[in-house]
Amino acid sequence: MTYVRPHYRRDGTYVKGHNRRTRPRTAQPRTAPRRTTSRPRPVPTGPTTYVRPHYRRDGTRVRGHHRSVNPRTVAVVAGTGGGGLLLLLLLLALAGGAGTSKSPVGTTPSQSASVPVSHHR
After folding, report:
1. What's the domain count of the chain?
2. Is residue 72 part of a domain?
3. Among the four 59, 62, 74, 78, which has the fewest Cβ within 10 Å?
4. pTM score of the predicted model
């Protein structure tokens, strides 16, 4: 006998912990025969990503698995991942970053900083 821990069903009903039989009570034929031969799992080549377990719209449960990633997708992600943000930050730093300079409280900006002075000879 297998012990089933208490849990909530998808519809929200609570199921108390109980012992479940591992074999059917009567020897009735099954509706769908179980697969007895195990197929070798394909070994993904190249980059992979992990897909978390989830339920499809039709209610089918999908177990967590590793999925191979298209090389084009990897190139697109690598090209825009952090490089675009780094370039943006660099451009903002070179441009002076509008609105980033603040004067301390209680001080006034100097005249040379706020009004350009022209020197005539």
Report:
1. 1
2. yes
3. 59
4. 0.30
- CA distance linking residue 97 with residue 90, whole number of Å: 10
Helices (H) and strands (E) in the chain, counts: 3, 8
102 in a domain, yes or no?
Answer: no
Dihedral, CA atoms, 60, 62, 68, 72, nearest 10 degrees?
A: 50
pLDDT in tens, 85-104: 677 778 888 887 555 555 55
Residue 83: partners with Cβ closer than 8 Å, 6 or more residues away: none
* Domain of 60, in residue numbers: 47-82
56 within a domain of the structure (yes/no): yes
Per-residue tokens: 25: 């009570």
Q: For tokens 């991942």, name the residue.
A: 81
Extract the tokens encoding 104.
């301390």
Q: Which residues lie below 8 Å from residue 62, measured CB to CB, with a gap of 6+?
A: 51, 53, 54, 55, 56
Q: Which amino acid is at 13?
A: T
